[in-house]
Design brief:
The chain is mostly beta strands. It is built from four helices and 14 strands.
């Protein structure tokens, strides 16, 4: 059997060639590199604001202490906090329908209609995560909710080819990894307070805007992980506002929630 060996001189030459290989230039967009942390944040806000509504089909995978499983969903979302979420069976028929305009809440499930205030606890009756309606709407639209901050810091990470934007308030921090040239947040993680981490993936251009087609939410304190994948969605069409009004179907018993 012949064995191929590389001499020390060959290893040295190979190492020099690898070092000499130029790294692919980072696309920064028509305005070039951000001039400051504030400039970077403005680009993130502009990119996120390009999607003003979303509706269509999605797949949700849940891993929580209550169990694991996947379910098909129909979503309709509009800022600041309007949500219509249908949980579908194998044949695409709604098994549960949640709706909120950010203030009132309604859930049709198991032959009854629950009605109350749009609290995080009420939203958790359908999704196994305690989150305010405005934050849930933002996440479904591909936005990373941000904590209040006193200072901003920016750096560029050569390894990931992303900007890292750090928000600070006292001992609390939130780090946002931002992908140029779309300037979409692809990861958000906080320290110093109880919060969830977000990862946005599969950045896709649709109708002239960039949309993350997948989002993973991990809440360490509740040991819960949600993975949402958008399948076929429509962007920026005027939503049917009646979808967000929590009204019970005819002849369905209504239970008022505190």
């Amino acid at each position: 059997m012949l064995r191929h060996t590389v001499s020390p001189a060959g290893i040295l030459i190979l190492s020099m060639l690898l070092v000499a290989c130029p790294r692919r230039a980072v696309e920064l967009g028509k305005d070039g590199a951000p001039r400051s942390a504030e400039d970077l944040l403005k680009r993130v806000e502009f990119a996120e604001a390009q999607i003003t509504s979303l509706n269509g089909d999605a797949k949700l995978f849940v891993d929580s202490p209550q169990g694991k499983g996947a379910v098909d969903l129909f979503l309709a979302v509009a800022p600041p906090a309007s949500l219509h979420i249908e949980q579908l069976d194998f044949f695409g028929r709604p098994q549960a329908v949640m709706m909120t305009d950010g203030h009132a809440f309604g859930l049709f499930q198991d032959g009854r209609f629950l009605r109350g205030t749009a609290t995080p606890q009420n939203l958790a009756r359908l999704l196994p995560i305690v989150i305010p309606p405005g934050e849930l709407a933002a996440v479904l639209l591909g936005r990373a909710p941000r904590m209040p901050y006193e200072t901003l810091e920016m750096r560029f990470d050569d390894r990931s080819q992303r900007f890292v934007l750090t928000l600070r308030q006292g001992a609390a921090t939130q780090k946002l990894e931002v992908q140029p040239p779309s300037y979409r947040v692809v990861h958000s993680e906080a320290q110093g307070f109880d919060a969830y981490a977000l990862t946005f993936g599969d950045l896709t251009e649709q109708n002239g805007v960039t949309l993350p087609k997948s989002v993973t939410l991990e809440a360490a304190s509740s040991k819960t992980k949600l993975e949402l994948t958008l399948k076929s969605v429509t962007l920026n069409e005027a939503p049917d506002e009646s979808m967000f009004v929590p009204e019970a179907p005819p002849d369905v018993p209504v239970e008022e929630l505190n």
